[in-house]
């Protein structure tokens, strides 16, 4: 155990923990279950637990694994841990915190598969990319036999994720769902042929491999899991495997189980105490977020649940306020809420960013708000999976790309097949949407001729990629008139960047395997992808990406989980809207319902109640729940959650004639989090801050090229060759030949091209190792993961090779050529790694960059004075990113920049 003064500081600073929090942090039980209510300070509790392990119990950072539900939550927790360790004087431990894992379960499985189970050359398809890929290969699986192809693809994915998440044994599947089983196995074969993983399959592969090789987890002694009520059975099994030789500390709140529809199983939280009979259960019921009236109303609603739960205890002295407003119809409801927002902002009581509007469905309930906010110039950001396509500028993009396909069409919504636009109507409707949503780039009739020419050029194969087509379109639409420093323009540019990501998701999935470009086919498939999937699945750029924009957050309750606002509106609390009329409706399944808990996925009133409870507990100072009397001229009753769940509650009733009283609101502070950067990101910022913003923050992608992945596969082959030399006694040349023959893979070229490129690569690598054979024998470590603190940030990356000849330690990076990155930039990368190694206590004496194309090695200065100079440069760049300083750097880089077409600063 460490110094008891440390323990006192951990418990008492920056604010003293409550008795229940102290109990959680200090418990020495092997299995601990924390029931932490909304606003109970669970992140702070988890942070202090980790800091206590590090500084008081003196455990090694590498022995701790902490799972969070989202990457954002991981970043927040990591930031707090770094801050506290540094403040308490643990500089030595702070340097090694990168050895600790804080992140999502998917991220950890990816790490295990890449580093321990030979999946280092696999790419990962996210949900959007996987859907695009399945819509391409679904014909091979027979999904086109009985019509409604895209729906069959989506139903297959839904069932596939049930199989993975519920751990349904394959032999059961083969017996009871033989047709699905055939598709399932064929799909996995197709994925493997392209060396691609999917999110849910990653967990299953990690489980399978860990059961055979459990020693991989031998260093893990402490496992911490946040949001345990939202895990599924596969994740539970993974946690049990890791927990065989480690202590487990879980935190959750069964009152906030809102993801059953995608497989979360709240029984896992209950079962933890049954499976671990030694488990200590600690309840943290103090709520530090909300005013007393908000807590009282939330507690009353929780009594409406089927199960009984402890009430939250308010910590704040302020009363806060809860209102229930009834308006005449949904349009007047949106207008009334807009009035109250303007009133509070104009009175200086809050900013737009202090306000959240939480909806059961953005698709169903957001349109009136979007229209009225745009009309009144109230800045807003739309969340929810249909958020992106609610923006007129994105509607423009969707319609114009649909117009490129000769039978193109556009549905107003996936759920509204009546309003369909086709042919030339798409063109004129698109221009109307653009002029409506982007008035600063207003278009006139002469643009039509230019767009017709753009269409002809696309169909005549004048462009090499969708990105090139897109950038040309943006220029025609006067995109260069947008000013990224204008907050309203920044939102538009960010969303157009998100559309760029959509195009890349689609294109990369469609070009896997070296597929030949066919614009007619690809435009047809893109049209269907957008209309049947993307328009209901892509969100706006997340608020974090445009942090400086002061805007009302309009989002689903699901998205709001873990967030808070001083003023929260929960509108459209009407029957059939909230609770959703879809809750409990039987769905179509490809596997028998008796093989899994189908009802869990289909939802019920109880899960809807918990969702509303989450909405209530997001408010800090003022909560306004509202409903309307009529919808499209028909009567619409109030939600039972109001008439029954909030009956006799301590709320103030308001009508259309009433105004929301002005309240003093606590301001929302943007915490100065410790963010993580890779050396590549720092170098991109160094090249051009404006490029960094477009590419790294807003998602504007360089054009697709079939040789994407060449550098990655060379690196992987070198990694495997080093392993053969070190562990199996291969000679360098035979190691390279074997590694290239077994592992070289280019995802976007066909087999014939791939073989030619492979043989050329083999010759290149053999030439390199012949010239540097001694270095190959002296390799100490390859793909060495490193993470270290620098200023208010951490730098993370992988060192290609660490060479040790007995006297000197050398950090080396492989480059395929010197045309993409300059020698100075390569040197900076090596120097960043050297700084990290020295912080971690390693005495780096040499640095080098190996250029594989001409077998040369360029040495880099890594003496203390040079590293100190580099450290100052990097810190300046980090400061620039944090301060949102994204000035253009016009100069030499412009000639190589792949975004010059859409850069208003490029000299023309």
From TrEMBL:
The keyword Ribonucleoprotein does not apply. Belongs to the helicase family. UvrD subfamily. It is an enzyme of class 5 (isomerase). Gene3D superfamilies: 1.10.10.160, 3.90.320.10, P-loop containing nucleotide triphosphate hydrolases (3.40.50.300), PCRA, domain 4 (1.10.486.10). This is DNA 3'-5' helicase. GO terms for biological process: recombinational repair. It holds the Pfam family UvrD_C. ATP binds at residues 36-43. Keywords: ATP-binding, DNA damage, DNA repair, DNA-binding, Exonuclease, Helicase, Hydrolase, Isomerase, Nuclease, Nucleotide-binding. One of its GO terms (molecular function) is DNA binding. It catalyses: Couples ATP hydrolysis with the unwinding of duplex DNA by translocating in the 3'-5' direction; ATP + H2O = ADP + phosphate + H(+). Residues 292-562 form the UvrD-like helicase C-terminal domain. It comes from Methanosarcina mazei (strain ATCC BAA-159 / DSM 3647 / Goe1 / Go1 / JCM 11833 / OCM 88) (Methanosarcina frisia). InterPro entries: DExx_box_DNA_helicase_dom_sf (IPR013986), DNA_helicase_UvrD-like_C (IPR014017), DNA_helicase_UvrD/REP (IPR000212), P-loop_NTPase (IPR027417), PDDEXK-like_dom_sf (IPR011604), PDDEXK_AddAB-type (IPR038726), UvrD-like_ATP-bd (IPR014016).
């Amino acid at each position: 155990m460490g110094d008891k003064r440390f323990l006192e500081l951990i418990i008492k600073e920056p604010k003293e923990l409550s008795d229940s929090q102290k109990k959680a942090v200090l418990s020495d039980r092997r299995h601990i279950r924390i029931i932490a209510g909304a606003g109970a300070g669970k992140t702070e509790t988890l942070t202090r637990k980790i800091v206590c392990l590090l500084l008081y119990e003196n455990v090694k950072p590498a022995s701790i694994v902490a799972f969070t539900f989202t990457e954002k939550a991981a970043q927040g927790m990591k930031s707090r841990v770094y801050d506290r360790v540094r403040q308490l004087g643990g500089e030595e431990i702070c340097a090694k915190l990168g050895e600790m894992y804080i992140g999502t379960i998917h991220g950890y499985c990816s790490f295990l598969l890449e580093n321990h189970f030979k999946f280092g050359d696999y790419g990962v398809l996210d949900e959007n990319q996987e859907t695009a890929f399945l819509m391409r290969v679904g014909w091979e699986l027979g999904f086109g036999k009985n019509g409604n192809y895209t729906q069959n693809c989506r139903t297959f994915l839904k069932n596939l994720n049930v199989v993975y998440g519920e751990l349904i044994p394959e032999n059961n599947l083969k017996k009871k769902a033989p047709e699905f089983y055939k598709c399932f196995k064929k799909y996995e074969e197709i994925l493997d042929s392209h060396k691609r993983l999917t999110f849910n399959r990653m967990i299953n592969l990690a489980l399978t491999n860990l059961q055979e090789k459990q020693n991989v987890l031998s260093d893990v002694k402490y496992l911490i899991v946040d949001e345990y009520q939202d895990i599924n059975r596969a994740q539970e099994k993974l946690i049990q495997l890791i927990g065989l030789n480690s202590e487990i500390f879980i935190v959750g709140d069964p009152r906030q189980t809102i993801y059953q529809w995608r497989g979360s199983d709240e029984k896992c939280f209950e079962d933890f105490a049954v499976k671990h009979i030694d488990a200590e259960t600690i309840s943290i019921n103090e709520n530090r977020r909300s005013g007393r009236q908000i807590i009282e109303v939330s507690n009353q609603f929780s009594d409406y649940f089927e199960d009984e739960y402890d009430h939250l205890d308010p910590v704040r002295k302020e009363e806060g306020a809860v209102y229930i407003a009834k308006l005449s119809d949904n349009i007047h409801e949106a207008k009334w809420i807009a009035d109250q927002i303007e009133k509070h902002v104009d009175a200086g009581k809050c900013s737009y960013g202090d306000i959240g509007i939480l909806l059961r469905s953005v698709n169903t309930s957001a349109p009136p708000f979007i229209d009225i906010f745009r009309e009144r110039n109230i800045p807003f950001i739309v969340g929810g999976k249909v958020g992106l396509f609610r923006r007129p500028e994105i509607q423009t993009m969707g319609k114009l790309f649909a117009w490129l396909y000769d039978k193109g069409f556009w549905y107003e919504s996936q759920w509204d097949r009546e309003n369909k636009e086709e042919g030339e109507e798409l063109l004129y409707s698109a221009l109307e949407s653009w002029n409506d949503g982007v008035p600063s780039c207003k278009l006139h009739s002469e643009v039509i001729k230019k767009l017709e020419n753009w269409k002809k050029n696309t169909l005549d194969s004048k462009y090499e990629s969708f990105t090139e087509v897109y950038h040309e379109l943006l220029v025609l639409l006067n995109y260069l008139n947008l000013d990224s420093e204008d907050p309203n323009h920044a939102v538009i540019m960010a969303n157009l960047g998100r559309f760029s990501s959509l195009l890349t998701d689609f294109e990369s999935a469609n070009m896997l395997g070296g597929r030949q470009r066919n614009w007619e086919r690809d435009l047809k498939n893109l049209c269907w992808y957008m209309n049947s999937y993307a328009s209901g699945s892509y969100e706006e750029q997340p608020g974090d990406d445009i942090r400086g924009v002061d805007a009302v957050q309009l989002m689903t309750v699901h998205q709001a989980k873990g967030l808070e606002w001083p003023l929260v509106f929960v509108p459209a609390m009407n029957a059939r809207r909230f609770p959703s009329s879809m809750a409990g409706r039987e769905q179509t399944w490809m596997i028998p319902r008796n093989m899994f808990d189908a009802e869990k996925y289909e939802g019920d009133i109880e899960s809807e109640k918990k969702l509303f409870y989450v909405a209530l507990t997001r408010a800090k100072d003022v909560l306004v729940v509202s409903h309307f009397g009529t919808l499209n001229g028909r009567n619409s009753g109030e939600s039972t959650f109001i008439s029954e769940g909030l009956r006799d509650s301590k709320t103030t009733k308001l009508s259309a004639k009433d105004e929301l009283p002005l309240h003093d609101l606590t301001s929302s502070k943007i915490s100065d989090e410790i963010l993580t950067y890779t050396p590549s990101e720092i170098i991109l910022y160094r090249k051009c801050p404006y490029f960094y913003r477009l590419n790294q923050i807003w998602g504007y992608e360089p054009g697709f090229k079939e040789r994407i992945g060449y550098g990655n596969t060379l690196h992987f082959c070198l990694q495997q060759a080093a392993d053969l030399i070190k562990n199996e006694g291969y000679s360098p040349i035979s190691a390279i030949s074997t590694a290239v023959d077994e592992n070289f893979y280019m995802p976007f070229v066909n087999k014939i091209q791939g073989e030619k490129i492979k043989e050329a690569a083999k010759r290149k690598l053999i030439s390199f190792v012949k010239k540097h054979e001694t270095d190959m024998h002296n390799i100490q470590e390859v793909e060495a993961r490193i993470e270290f603190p620098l200023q208010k940030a951490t730098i993370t990356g992988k060192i290609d090779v660490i060479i040790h000849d007995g006297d000197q330690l050398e950090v080396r990076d492989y480059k395929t050529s010197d045309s993409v990155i300059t020698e100075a930039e390569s040197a900076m990368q090596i120097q960043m790694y050297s700084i990290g190694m020295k912080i971690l206590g390693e005495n780096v004496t040499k640095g080098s960059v190996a250029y594989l194309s001409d077998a040369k090695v360029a040495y880099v200065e890594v003496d203390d004075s040079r590293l100190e100079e580099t450290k100052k440069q990097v810190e300046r760049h980090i400061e620039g990113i944090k301060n949102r300083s994204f000035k253009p750097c016009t100069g030499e880089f412009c000639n190589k920049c792949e975004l010059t077409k859409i850069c208003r600063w490029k000299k023309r």
